[in-house]
Design a protein that fits this description.
heterodimer, A: alpha/beta, D-Maltodextrin-Binding Protein, domain 2, 5-stranded mixed beta sheet, 3-stranded antiparallel beta sheet, 10 strands, B: mainly alpha, globular
Chain lengths: 336, 491
């Protein structure tokens, strides 16, 4: 319950300055609206299944963009291959006419760099608006031999007795990468149990089938409130305001590289006319100034990265994050 | 709060004109969604999710849940009438349901399907009323090794299902496993058998395969025969199940309910697996397994009950733990989150109005659905009077629309056509298609749970013997295989 109150407080704090901006946003949006656009509904493409974190983010965004722009938005889930199909669709098949917007996450970079095999690149999708950030959080049991232990203690056991601590992971993604980092830096060795998503791993943790799991706040909040699992470390540069007592992974293990965060943003396919792109971006930004949407997002346990909330610096800073990810892949031999 | 008090609270919440209307609307939409091939509950829930923003949390959840279980009622309709599964959980109903329709007994098949759905749905919600938290506490301990044992049991039941040549059946199972292996490896995230194609990297869409194998194959098989003017002309005998039908059906209904409920609880399981396993079970224990595939009513009653019970089973972990076991329940969870409700172990005590409201609505919804579906039986059966020259293009159109609407991916249409042709050829060569489809459904779960079990075990395969539940189930599997060999030797 504590976390819920914290979220409510935080949203109240953030909401105050945004109210005044709301009215401006609508006027601002009218100024950049092209004369001939849009004449029909705009499709927000989500590359993950309905009901997940990405889908909820997109549907809430669509609701508020409709409110501010008056345009009709249709959210469409183009799923398959853990996002690969939808990413490829947006980058290679979608018409760059402004009627297709992708509501995606930085997981797209990994698809582009490691799995697209040169068929498309992440630069084929141009960011038009930042939405929110959701860091990976290490979660431990509240029962059994590892009860009450810190990340450092569990990692130490995985070093002393390699291949005994069972860690849930999602293969070929940031769940795996952070385990790579921890193992490389500490000499520990986990038994990696593969799952199709973070939520499935958290459930296995609650059922005593793994000893440590990673997931997003929204995925384990219910179980944590009931004391079935406990957050141990946040893979973000700073502590989260609603998890003040949980250290960052950098604090817990010492270092500065344990930062694995889902960054959600909106894109248009490369080649979308500049005026339409500007308008679509302005519509997203207008919605993001709506305190109601901000509150909805905060309720889901996300935070807003100050490096990305300023539209002027958003594109450059996103590129910097993408470059850092490419560097990680090169360093670990995943990318040549 | 005890269950009776809770249920009273729930009915207090639900018995308002608005909530009853939403429950009815959801039941109606669910039935339609079930009837239309391709448009499954997942797509429908995703489409209607924004509408529930404007409703109260109770109203929104009542409507979404009723669409989910309502779809299980409607799903059998096109399976029985046209041999196109209304959705994945009704694939197995094609096998005997459509044969019954061809024998003029579409009404009996549709009637038993609706009644079986009602019985299972109601039994499921009764169990949910009294035992939800206790069941959830057990279900969460269910790990990869236990899942693996259940899936092995499923595969062995599949072997029992094989009609005709055992070699041909095993070949079909193997082909199903191979097809399921296409796409992204569940363990290391690498591509398998994709030949560099983005489309193949997403794997083969199950819905495209079954619509191809059943719907398209059916059309191809029929057009080459002498085209008669109507499907069954005046051979629509008796619209209602006979006393003999009842006698044959009530046990499969109860068994299907139990099995389906259990499989709904299992992570990764759900209505689809439940319907297949129920069919296999009924055929296994039947005194006349040769009747299956030729219009055995047990082959409709069991699976159609199982898929409804699985819905109730799969809703329990979502509401009492906040844990979704399949994509549809994940969407229900998403809907709760959008409404600002956090499902989890505390949900029942924190939001009794919502939990018990949803439970109560499921009693009401199942009654609505029975009242809605029984009168439709007569209407649907009349559809069979439509001449072939009109019916076949409609079947193909529905197949195409249904396949495309699942993922909005044109590639799936080629998959559908390809499997339609394959199904035609296999039919000519007297291969049984059912083992192929079941293998395709079970393979991803089987592979994942096996590799997860081995990954989490420091002692390799010993993990299957170290866990009592797993050891017990696998021993049962071994006994079944031994029995099967003995029987084959005798014959």
């Amino acid at each position: 319950m504590k976390s819920v109150i914290a979220v409510a407080l935080l949203s109240a704090l953030l909401a105050t300055p945004a109210v005044a901006q709301g009215a401006d946003a609508k006027a601002e949006l009218g100024k950049v609206k092209p004369k001939d656009f849009p004449t029909g509904p705009i499709e927000y493409t989500v590359v993950y299944p309905a009901g997940g974190g990405m889908d909820v983010t997109a549907r809430l965004l669509a609701k508020h963009v409709e409110k501010w722009s008056g345009d009709k938005i249709v959210v469409n889930n183009r799923t398959g291959g853990a996002g690969m199909v939808g990413h490829a669709y947006l980058a290679t098949q979608a018409k760059p006419d402004g009627y297709t917007v992708g509501v995606i996450a930085n997981l797209m970079w990994g698809d582009a760099m490691l799995r697209a095999q040169g068929r498309w690149a992440y630069t084929d999708l141009e960011p038009i608006g930042y939405l929110n950030s959701d860091p990976l959080i290490w979660v431990g049991p509240t029962d059994g031999p590892y009860k009450g232990m810190s990340v450092k203690q569990i990692v130490q056991i995985a070093k002393d007795k390699p291949n005994t601590v069972r860690a849930a992971t999602v293969p070929g993604s940031m769940w795996d990468y952070i385990l790579d980092q921890v193992e490389a830096n500490s000499g520990a060795k986990f038994l990696r149990v593969p799952f199709q998503g973070g939520g499935a791993g958290i459930n296995a943790l609650a059922g005593g089938n793994v000893d440590i799991a990673q997931g997003f706040f929204s995925e384990f909040r219910g179980l944590a409130d009931a004391g079935k699992v406990a957050p141990l470390g946040v893979a973000a540069p700073e502590r989260l305001s609603f998890l003040k007592d949980t250290p960052t992974m950098n604090e817990a293990l010492g270092g500065n590289e344990y930062q694995w965060i889902i960054i959600r943003f909106a894109v248009v396919p490369k080649g979308t006319p500049a005026d339409r792109k500007a308008y679509l971006g302005a519509a997203v930004q207008a919605a993001m100034k709506d305190p109601e949407l901000v509150a909805e997002y905060l309720k889901a346990g996300v935070y807003f990265d100050p490096k990305l909330t300023d539209p002027a610096r958003m594109e450059a800073n996103l590129k910097a994050y993408a470059d850092a990810e490419r560097e990680f892949y090169q360093k670990t031999g995943r990318l040549k | 709060m005890d269950a009776f008090g809770g249920l009273l609270t729930g009915f207090g919440v639900i018995l308002t004109p608005e909530n009853l209307y939403l429950c009815f609307l959801g039941s109606l939409i669910g039935t339609l969604v079930g009837v239309l091939p391709g448009v499954g509950p997942l797509a429908a829930l995703a489409l209607l999710l924004p509408i529930t923003f404007t409703l109260t949390p109770v109203g929104g959840m009542v409507m979404l849940a009723s669409i989910f279980y309502g779809a299980m009622y409607g799903g059998s309709t096109t399976s029985i009438l046209l041999n196109i599964p209304g959705e994945a959980a009704s694939v197995v109903t094609c096998l005997d349901g459509h044969q019954m329709a061809k024998q003029g007994r579409a009404g009996a098949a549709l009637g038993i399907a609706a009644i079986g759905s009602f019985v299972a749905g109601t039994l499921g919600v009764i169990v949910m009323t009294f035992f939800a938290p206790a069941i959830a506490a057990v279900a969460i301990r269910f790990g990869p090794p236990e899942n693996f044992a259940v899936m092995v049991l499923g595969v062995i039941c599949t072997l029992y299902m094989i009609a005709g040549s055992l070699v041909k059946g095993v070949l079909m199972v193997a082909l199903g496993f191979l097809t399921a292996a296409i796409g992204i490896d569940v363990v290391n995230g690498r591509e398998r058998f994709t030949f560099g194609s983005i489309d193949l990297s997403a794997g083969i869409e199950l819905l495209a395969v079954v619509i191809g194998l059943f719907g398209v194959t059916e059309v191809l098989n029929n057009v080459e025969r002498v085209v008669k003017s109507t499907v069954v002309t005046d051979r629509i005998r008796g619209l209602w199940p006979t006393l003999a039908d009842w006698r044959a059906s009530w046990r499969p209904m109860l068994r299907g309910s139990g099995l389906g409920f259990f499989l709904g609880l299992v992570p990764g399981g759900g209505p689809v697996t439940a319907s297949f396993m129920s069919y296999a079970l009924e055929k296994r224990i039947s005194a006349h397994p040769e009747r299956f595939g030729n219009g055995a009513i047990e082959g409709v009653a069991g699976p159609e009950s199982a898929n409804n019970a699985a819905v109730a089973g799969s809703i329990i972990p979502v509401l009492s733990l906040g844990i979704p076991g399949n994509p549809v329940t994940a969407l229900l969870l998403g809907a709760l989150v959008i409404h600002g409700v956090q499902p989890g172990p505390l949900f029942i005590t924190q939001r009794p109005d919502l939990f018990w409201g949803i439970v109560a609505s499921m009693y009401v919804g199942n009654v609505f659905l029975l009242l809605l579906n029984l009168p439709l039986v007569g209407l649907w059966a009349q559809l069979l009077r439509i001449p072939y020259r009109v019916l076949f293009p409609v079947v193909l159109l529905l197949s195409v629309v249904g396949t495309y609407s699942a993922n909005k991916n044109v590639f799936d249409l080629w998959v559908m056509l390809g499997f339609g042709l394959l199904g035609y050829v296999l039919h000519k060569l007297a291969y049984d298609l059912a083992p192929f489809v079941i293998a395709l459904v079970l393979a991803p779960l089987l592979e994942q749970s096996l590799r997860q079990s081995l990954a989490m075990s420091p002692d390799g395969a010993m993990i299957f013997l170290q866990r009592p539940g797993t050891a017990l189930m696998l021993t049962a599997c071994a006994v079944l295989v031994a029995l099967m060999f003995r029987r084959t030797k005798k014959s």
